[in-house]
Design a protein that fits this description.
6 strands, abc type-2 transporter like fold, 2 domains, alpha/beta, 16 helices, single chain, 6-stranded mixed beta sheet
């Protein structure tokens, strides 16, 4: 037999598999809907951010500073609003710029840059919204620089392009009430995107292992012998969940060990990089302990444990109701992408952290570290408690379904999806 018939045979096996077709349809439909929701949420948030008003604290009451601010305000379309103090500004606006008292003196000294303080209030987990706000600071900095050049050019009757004053914008962020620098927030934002994604991937891998192992046992006829043993079937479920967790943990340890060895090998020839890597690790630890607290770290560990139990029970359920490992793989794939998609959607849409999003995070489990991080920063653990409660309930429900299936004949016979055939009329 040549290669072509073998290839056609394999392709037909997948195409004729209802589970494979349904998984493709589900992934396309689910991600299509999720993409529209994300696009709408991101577009609305960015538009609101780009059109927001900006508070300005003017400590320099000189005529020059007033004129520079007036030119900048006209250029921005009237978006710069004077406020009496930083506290008053942040209570009204999400962005406040502070013009220092030595602003005019700095402008007139050609060899000195102009230092301006800016403050950004961030109450969202969306990196798109926070990125748009930080970009506004860059725009305001450039706007003030050009306004300075314009005012000086008018006073001295010269070309504005001949005047080039450097404006240094020192940005401080107020993230859910916590004051931090831009570098610190960048680290936190990285963690908010990286940790849920890694947990979602671990859950997906664990569900795949559990379903494949269970389905393989059914195909090899070892499943019936196991069920015939005089032991409670719930113990079989527990054993399979623990087995899939151990397999996933071993694979995860091997993966991260390999990544560590790659990084170690790559940095051996460049000592400076080792110092930078070590400094980055220390920086992350300092930020976690100082700005976030180890409560979020403990919740992340608990999330991994719950996620492994949840996904293991889910994989065992899938493996026990299908007829072979091929269908098990086809049904497990959409689950993996669902976990990953929902985790990213909650982050990028920029939904508020409230009871509703807490419930969604609890059911899907992967976004729980983000809920823990935000709850720790704002000092309100109501949403986190709700999320953890729903995560535990979801895990118990999935385990209960697996045990229920194992106590019925469906665990041996499988759940088959009938294919409807059209009969020709005579």
């Amino acid at each position: 037999m040549t290669l072509t018939p073998l290839l056609i045979r394999e392709v037909k096996a997948f195409i004729k598999n209802p589970a494979f077709i349904l998984s493709i349809v589900f992934i396309i439909g689910f991600y299509g809907i999720l993409g529209r929701l994300m696009s709408t949420g991101i577009q609305t948030a960015v538009e609101q951010t780009l059109n927001m008003q900006i508070g300005v604290v003017l400590y320099d009451s000189s005529d020059f500073a007033v004129r520079v601010l007036s030119v900048a305000n006209k250029t921005s379309g009237g978006r710069l609003q004077l406020v009496p103090s930083l506290e008053a500004g942040l209570s009204i606006y999400d962005i406040v710029v502070v013009i220092p008292s030595d602003f005019t003196i700095r402008v007139m000294e050609l060899d000195k840059p102009i230092n301006i303080e800016s403050y950004i209030k961030i109450n969202t987990i969306s990196p798109v919204v926070s990125g748009a706000k930080t970009n506004i600071i860059t725009v305001i900095s450039d706007l003030i620089r050009k306004s300075i050049s314009y005012v000086i050019a008018i006073e001295r009757n010269i070309d504005p392009s001949l005047i080039n004053k450097h404006v240094l914008m020192n940005t401080t962020l107020q993230v859910y009430g916590k004051i931090m620098k831009l570098e610190e927030y960048s680290t936190i934002s990285f963690l908010m995107g990286f940790v849920p994604m890694m947990i979602a991937i671990i859950m997906g891998i664990n569900a795949a292992y559990a379903s494949q192992f269970t389905a393989t046992e059914k195909v090899e006829k070892a499943f019936e012998m196991l069920l015939a043993q005089p032991i409670p079937r719930r113990n079989i479920v527990f054993a399979k969940i623990i087995g899939s967790i151990i397999a996933s943990l071993l694979m995860g340890i091997a993966y991260f060990t390999g990544m560590f060895l790659i990084l170690l090998s790559a940095t051996t020839s460049t000592p400076n990089t080792i110092g930078n890597t070590t400094g980055l690790s220390v920086n992350i630890i300092e930020i976690v302990s100082g700005k976030i607290g180890f409560n979020a770290l403990l919740v992340s560990i608990a999330t991994i444990i719950l996620g492994l139990i949840y996904s293991g029970a889910l994989g065992i359920t899938i493996g026990s109701i299908v007829s072979d490992e091929r269908i098990a793989g086809a049904l497990t794939a959409p689950i993996i992408f669902t976990f990953i998609g929902i985790g990213y959607a909650l982050i990028f849409i920029g939904l508020p952290v409230n009871i509703i999003t807490g419930v969604i995070a609890g059911i899907t489990i992967a976004p729980l570290p983000v809920i823990a991080l935000v709850s720790t920063m704002i000092g309100d653990f109501t949403v986190l408690t709700t999320s953890l409660l729903f995560a535990v309930l979801s895990t118990i429900v999935v385990m209960g379904i697996a045990i229920h299936i194992y106590n019925r004949d469906i665990v041996v016979l499988g759940l088959r999806i009938s294919r409807f055939k059209l009969k020709e009329r005579k």
